[in-house]
Amino acid sequence: MISSISVPIATIRASLPASVRLIAVTKQVPASVMRSAYAAGIRDFGENRIQEAASKQTELQDLSDITWHFIGNLQANKAKKALEQFRWIHSVDNLKLAQRLNQLAQQLGVHPLVCLQVKILPDPNKSGWSDPQQLLADLPALNQCKDLQIQGLMTIPPLGLDDAEILNVFNRTRELAKEIQEQNWSNIQMQHLSMGMSSDYQLAVQAGATMVRLGTILFGNR
Fold first, then answer.
1. What is the pLDDT of residue 4?
2. How many CA atoms lie within 13 A of 81 on its CB side?
3. 27: Cβ contacts below 8 Å, ≥ 6 apart
4. Is the pTM for the entire model greater than 0.90?
5. Are 193 and 211 in contact (CB under 8 A)?
6. According to the model, what pLDDT value does residue 2 have?
7. Residues 27 and 47 sit within 8 Å (Cβ to Cβ)
8. Exposed site from 103, 129, 163, 192, fewest CB < 10 Å?
């Protein structure tokens, strides 16, 4: 298994600029395969579900330099567990959730790294701020979430777009991050763009992604 995993990992790594972080998305991937991915050099693992991640984290607890990323839709009642289990949360998709995470982070004494999830185009099947203007309006309140380390934006294009349309979504996300960064908030940084999955990561990298979330291209269909 190590050799079969190492080939796509090495191929993808060779295609990525050094500035782009490869997050292996391991939904429904067993811990044994994740261990093989680790042996092939992966240190960032992305999970969509709190409970599934917990069992894997227990199995892989000897691999102490793994960074765990939560990339799925986060319900408020799972916020505490997310903070306990993950260093990164990519899917902070509304102000109320950010404020809840901030409150819990203060209680737990943690300072999670987070991305704000935004929908550049309307998409009922995705979470996120549905209007970039609403995100901009929420920035003063987000800036008060001082126990969160807000690092950038996350986006997922709607299904059914062609390459030019996907690239446009990623470029607009980059421009939104630039607009936010230029406002010089004390507690909001826009150093990272979490965008790009197996089918479109090359377009995301072209548009300036700093983190790509890849599953199928590494592990096959699940």
1. 80
2. 14
3. 47, 48, 49, 52, 72, 215, 222
4. yes
5. yes
6. 46
7. yes
8. 163
Bridge-partner residues for 25, per DSSP? 46
- Using CA atoms, how far apart are residues 194 and 178, in angstroms rounded to an integer? 14
- Give the Å distances, CA to CA, from 50 to 17, 40, 68, 75, 79: 30, 25, 11, 10, 9
Domains of the chain (ranges; CATH) run: 2-219 (3.20.20.10)
Local mean pLDDT, 10-residue blocks, the chain (222 residues): 77 95 97 96 97 97 97 95 98 98 98 98 91 96 98 97 98 98 98 97 98 95 74
Backbone angles phi, psi at 126, to 5 degrees: -120, 155
| Residue whose structure tokens are 């599934």 | 52
Per-residue pLDDT at 72: 96
Q: What pLDDT does residue 41 have?
A: 95
CA distance 59 to 118: 33
Neighbouring CB atoms inside 10 A of 210's CB total 19
Q: What is the pLDDT of residue 125?
A: 87
- What's the half-sphere exposure (Cβ side, CA atoms, 13 Å) at 87? 11
109-142 burial: b if 16+ Cβ within 10 Å, else e: ebebbbbbbbbbeebeebbbbbebeebeebbeeb
Q: Is 30 helix (H, G, I), strand (E, B) or coil?
A: coil
